[in-house]
Amino acid sequence: MPESHQKAPPAGEGGLPGVFERLVEEHYQPAYRFAFSLCGNHNDACDLAQQAFFLAQTKGHQLRDRSKAKQWLFTILHREFLGMRRHATAHPQTSMEFSEPELPHITVDNAASIDAKTALAVLQTFDTNFKAPLVLFYLEQLSYKEIAESLEIPIGTVMSRLARGKAMLRERLERKRTEQSGKIVPLHPDTARARRDG
Amino acid sequence: MDKETVKLLLASYLPQDAEDPIFAEALREVAGDPALAAWFEESQRFDAVMTAKFRDLAVPHDVKGHILLGAGASSRWSRHWVQSLGALAALLILGLICWRFLAPRRAGDALALQAIHFTEEMPPLQFVCFDAGAVANWINKQPGARQMKLALPKPPASLSMAMIGSSVVNWNGRPVVMIALQNGKRMAMLYILSDADAAALQGGSSGTIERGDWVVRSSHSDGQVRLLTTKGNREDLDFPAPF
Q1: What is the ipTM of this complex?
Q2: Quick one: which of A64, A4, A66, A79 has its CA closest to A34?
Q3: Interface contact B74-A37, CB threshold 8 A
Q4: Which of A126, A188, B20, B98 has its CA 20 to 30 Å from the CA of residue B62?
Q5: Minimal Cα distance from B58: which residue of A?
Q6: Which is more confidently placed, B166 or B133?
Q7: Is-contact A114 A173, C-beta < 8 A?
Q8: pLDDT tens across A137-181, in order?
Q9: Is A1 in the B-facing interface, judged by CB distances under 8 Å?
Q10: Distance CA B65, CA B37 (A)
Q11: How confident is the model at residue A87 (pLDDT cuts 50, 70, 90)?
């Protein structure tokens, strides 16, 4: 269900009168989804969201524009995720942007037939540089400017990563779909064509 | 604008961005190029599908509780910190109020305590006489008391305490008239000093205090402060004042 369609519990049902509790009430779902998209599992996502809200609570005075509370929360969450990842591995992940051969893209109809769990699993194979903008774009419908603010990266970088990320997503979804259907996926269309012709 | 640039730009396009000038030229290119238009339409459909997919991600019920639980320690600490600050502020305010309103009382108490201390010492009377009028005359002739211009009317016949003598003593350089009163075995001392001297001695407020075996009633009238002191409690001071 889209976030905007979800109603906050009425006052008294849950008794969340404080500013912080309201922040949690309003944004815990998108924050969790973003965290889950970054981490790929419930436990880490829960801890990451918790840590982000914890920091938001302690840094609440830094938020000047309450209308940007969600973006601000995403920024904190993303920073924390990057920090956690730096601690988790001594070697930062390398982007697969240029290492992947060009694969066929999934069609819209085939994409529609893939279940959400599989789509999210495919997203987990992405480097954070591409995953984070894609999640904010698809999940939260944030504009490129809002994504740039949330992730603290230039607008041009956001646009570039969204374009490349979408292309990679369509490629990997297609590969996943064909794997699931038992088909052999050619490494490269030209290679496959050459083998077939030759 | 070449097609690759159009595709790069429009990959960031959301329906609510239709008015954003950064997309204007790219959208114009799309409108004039059927191949680009087809690509764009298909791209928009793909975006809609993926948005729906990602939004299918259910948020477990325990997430909010987990977040609030994690923040709870900080929240509790913050609340505790704020409460401590609040309590400290309240104490400071209370202290200021006490200082502001009770300081005179404390000073008055200081004067009363001086009276108790002086009575405990029981200095010898300079003038001993059971005639109240004679005592009053003697007092008015004393250098320190003359400046005080004590108005000592004759005590009423109903006065239960008899005047037995007087002294003019010195409290930190300020003249104080001391009058000894007696009723049977009970003795009392009445100390009289001017308002100005009482103020200089940081006293002058009215009231009754009890300290140990002693009780002092301070009163204020006619520009004078009077301290009636005796051993006992408040009830023991319940007799008509001689002046």
Answers
A1: 0.72
A2: A79
A3: no
A4: A126
A5: A33
A6: B166
A7: yes
A8: 998 899 999 999 999 888 888 998 999 999 999 999 999 888 887
A9: yes
A10: 47
A11: low
